[in-house]
Amino acid sequence: MKRVLECVPNFSEGRDRSVIDRIAAAAAGVAGVELLDVDPGAATHRTVVTLAGEPEAVVEAAVRAGKEAASLIDMTRHSGQHPRFGAMDVCPLVPVSGITMEETVELARELGRRLGEEAGLSVYLYEEAATRPERRNLAQVRAGEYEGLAERMKDPAHAPDFGPTEFQPRTGATAVSARNFLAAFNVNLNTTSTRRANAVAFDVREKGRIQREGHPLTGPVVQDADGNPVWMPGSLATVKGIGWFIKEYGICQVSLNLTDLSQVSLHQAFDEVEAKARDRGIRATGSELVGLVPRSVMLDAGRHYLRRQQRSTGVSDRELIHIAVRSMGLDELGPFREEEKLVESALEARKRGSGPAASAAEGRGASPKPKLVEKTLQDFVWETASESPAPGGGSAAAAAGALGAALATMVANLSSHKQGWDDRWEEFSKHAEQGKACHDRLLSLVDEDTAAFDSIMASWRLPAGDDDEKAAKDKAVQAAVRNAIEVPLQVMEVALEAMSTALAMAESGLKASASDAGVAALCARAAVLGAGLNVRINAPDLEDAPLRDSFLAKASELTTCAETLEKKILAVVDERLAENSHTQG
Fold first, then answer.
1. Which of 169, 373, 472, 520 is most buried by its number of CB atoms within 10 A?
2. Residue 250: its pLDDT value, please?
3. pLDDT of residue 582
4. 108 pairs with which residues across the strands?
5. How far is it, in rounded angstroms, from Cα 509 to Cα 314?
6. Does 253 share its domain with 347?
7. Residue 355, pLDDT score
8. Is 366 within a domain?
9. What CATH number has the domain bearing residue 245?
């Protein structure tokens, strides 16, 4: 999975567009980072910037933006409605895909150190990156805001984690964190009563409502021993919520902040609001997602609603997202566009130079070459047949493997829908998910194989004038050769895994699809053997003999396994085809 990190720095400037643009441009100038959104607010005098991309590049972009903010923003002249205590007020890092929270914490601490050393900012770490329990909560870290910071910093207990320990009047202080993804999510109700929408919001939000004796609205407030109101918590931990009326749409919404999507997902929140609304005679008609979420959030929702229908979840990502959108009515108030709502899709659109994300920042040169897997089948075949040496056998092997895995997945999905097999849908769904994981990975390896070839060619073109250049070139060549062996080895491993799905479907899937399971095995076996040839042709260039021998041994083992498994699958297919022939005869 591609590693993607999001960063959402907030700057204490929301009115001077020239300052905002310079800060945004500083971040957008880093290769590997895309500027997804710049949202200034005049009343709050604050701008929220959204960046995403390769983790290390995102950290670099945040440092550059912090430096620019430190030089342009003067906190001695700042006032606004939003809590704040610094020029670069907060800077959270959020893992999107391919990166753990533990890794994100380390990156946040590295970011804090660099902002302190390179931008001269006083940095406090909070939430998951906090080094002290009392600093996990941002409100505690920022208590007293900018106006109280000078006095607080006199206390050694309130010394920053990085940067100057003395109060910096111009820049104040910056809070850096690692946190889980949060989402602003509104559920539409078929009512115009704000009071009833609030009642549903109080039912679900973690804070809940004040407990009353007798009547829940007019009864006397229940108090604890100290005379404080007693609160009845709602059903969803980590969730904040309120009800409001939207004049533009003529409906009420339950407006939720899902502060930790790892605790309460989008679909869990929708289902809970739907249930609580129904209890009050109200219907949830749809929903609205404000801002962006990782693609995995929508994929999880799609799988959830398919499971509720007792349908296979091993379908395409496109279908999973479609099911999620339709199940939660995310397109009720307007079209649901992936490039506007999903982080990864926004990144892809930005790189293609299309979609709303593309206009968020100036381009940095020519658009990247389109992926092979994004071409039509005809164009892919034509490009393979051209005079260019890439794509070649490695990419073709990965493509064949992807087709084999897709066929095995198809048989699993068809089997999960067979009339009379309703009690087996989960069995086939698991096989379909395994096959889907294989064909998704093999599709990515189609382009990775061509990229590996391009890296070898680029390494051979490096200069080698003096000893240092020769050493650097040799190191680059060996790294590229190793990668050009490891990529086809991955093709072999994943294609072999796809063959296990084909075997399961040949044995227990729809008898009418036995031939499809056989073709799946043939395609996957071709992928294993074809990728094995790529390993063998690249191995002689690897100077590390023990590693070279281990690679070749692994390739030989995988080839033998594939040939053995192919015979087993085809024998099962032959037997089931014979059964079909006898039945028809």
1. 520
2. 93
3. 58
4. none
5. 15
6. yes
7. 47
8. no
9. 3.30.70.670
Tell me, yes or no, if 203 is annotated catalytic: no
Q: Please state the three-class secondary structure of 235-293 as a single string.
A: CCCCEEEEEEEECCCCEEEEEEEECCCCCCCHHHHHHHHHHHHHHCCCCEEEEEEECCE
Element containing residue 473 per DSSP (H, E): helix 467-508
Q: Is the peptide bond before 391 cis (omega within 30 degrees of 0)?
A: yes
Residues 320 and 468 in one domain: no
- Cα–Cα distance, 449 to 372 (Å, whole number): 11
Tokens 């692994």, located at residue: 554
For residue 66, give every residue at least 6 positions away whose Cβ sits within 8 Å of its Cβ, in sequence order, or none: 9, 88, 91, 115, 119, 121, 174
527, with CB counted inside 10 A (0-12, 13-18, 19+), is: buried
Catalytic residue among 82, 300, 317, 541: 82
The first and second tokens of residue 409, run together, are: 């997945």
Q: Note the pLDDT of residue 429.
A: 96
Look at the chain and report how many structural domains it folds into. 3
Note whether 108 and 95 are same-domain residues.
Answer: yes
Quick one: 222 and 153 in the same domain?
no
Q: Are strands 173-178 and 122-127 parallel, antiparallel or unpaired?
A: parallel
Map residue 121 onto helix, strand or coil.
coil
Q: Quote the DSSP letter at residue 549.
A: H
> Which stretches of the chain score pLDDT less than 50?
355-366, 585
Q: Residue 191: which domain range?
A: 183-360
CB 536 within 8 A of CB 552: yes
Tell me the pLDDT tens digit for each residue of 97-143: 999 999 999 999 999 999 999 999 999 999 999 999 999 999 899 99
Instruction: Check if the beta carbon of residue 94 is closer than 8 Å to that of residue 6.
Output: yes
Nearest to 441 by CA among 475, 473, 399, 486: 399
d(CA 245, CA 347): 33
Torsion over CA: 496, 500, 506, 509 (sign): negative
**Do residue 104 and residue 196 come from a single domain?**
no
Distance CA 187, CA 197 (A): 10
379 is catalytic: no
